[in-house]
Amino acid sequence: MNNFNKEQILYCQYCGKKCKSLNSLKQHEIRCNNNQNKINIVIKGHTNTWTQGRTFINKNGIHKFIKKEELEKYINEGWLLGLNKEYKEKISNSLKGKSSGKALTPEDELIRKQKISETMKQNPLAGGYRKGSGRGHEGWYKGIFCDSSWELAFLVYHIEHNLYIERCKEKRKYIFEGKEHTYIPDFITSEGIIEIKGFKTKQSEAKRLQNLDIKYLYFNDIKYCLDYVINKYGDEFWKKLYKFGGM
């Protein structure tokens, strides 16, 4: 019969605290206040920063943190800095295909991209229209430059239904947060001056309220244009239209 007292190894060698398992014992001992070589733990909010002053190393699938002053000794014993190549590739492969960043439907994807475009356009130094000022799918169609896929859809619908449309060139002013800004609306149609927006912001509302003769159109207002071009040219209609309908 083995008389080895398992209870003996469950007591901290520094303070005598009883631990429930061998793993909890080891974890306690390296942090025990009576251990002169304990790992210092500094808690900031919910972040445990005990690894400060330590370096992550690995060897043959074993990974651990060591004090930086001990690094040379471990390297001489064949330990490597950071994650090995095989482990990095494993992590990378596990993440592939998890998320493309795209929305689930073509319409939602257009909304997502337009929001990005509108956010970028809020730059106060970017007042007024110019080629390349947007961050959507931009390009030329029938001699008119479009700053986003939404503008393109609106333009194509009007052209293919023989409706009057041209790029607006009139610069407008507005005050926002105590500063004067300028911008140029998107189009002129038989319905008047048109500005196409992805979503409402404080700045876009300032533009609208100070230029009440301009008609602002949002997603629901131009959905019929998007449906038309998607049904006719496909989800990524801008690729075909910019390529074959350019300058």
What would the keywords be for this entry?
247 residues, alpha+beta, three-stranded antiparallel β-sheet, elongated
Summarize the structure.
The protein is an alpha+beta fold and 247 residues long.
Give a verbal description of the structure.
It is a single chain. With 247 residues, the protein is an alpha+beta fold. It has 3 domains: 1-38, no CATH class; 45-98, no CATH class; 106-244, no CATH class. It is built from 8 helices and 13 strands. It has helices at residues 22-29, 71-76, 85-95, 106-121, 149-160, 202-209, 219-233, 237-244, and strands at residues 43-44, 47-48, 54-59, 62-67, 80-81, 139-141, 144-146, 165-167, 172-176, 179-183, 187-189, 192-196, 214-217. A 4-stranded mixed sheet has the order 8-11-12-13. The radius of gyration is 31 Å and the shape is elongated.
Task: Report on the biggest sheet.
Answer: 4 strands, mixed
Helix-strand category: alpha+beta
Q: What is the rounded distance between the termini?
A: 93 Å
- In quaternary terms, these chains amount to single chain
Number of domains: 3
* Radius of gyration from the alpha-carbon trace, in angstroms: 31 Å
Instruction: Indicate the proportion of strand residues.
Output: 15-25%
Sequence stretches where pLDDT stays below 50 over 5 or more residues? 1-9, 42-48, 120-135
The number of E-state strands comes to: 13
Query: Count of helical segments?
Result: 8
List the helices and strands and how they pair.
Elements: H1 22-29, E1 43-44, E2 47-48, E3 54-59, E4 62-67, H2 71-76, E5 80-81, H3 85-95, H4 106-121, E6 139-141, E7 144-146, H5 149-160, E8 165-167, E9 172-176, E10 179-183, E11 187-189, E12 192-196, H6 202-209, E13 214-217, H7 219-233, H8 237-244
Parallel strand pairs: 12-13
Antiparallel strand pairs: 1-2, 3-4, 3-5, 6-7, 8-11, 9-10, 11-12
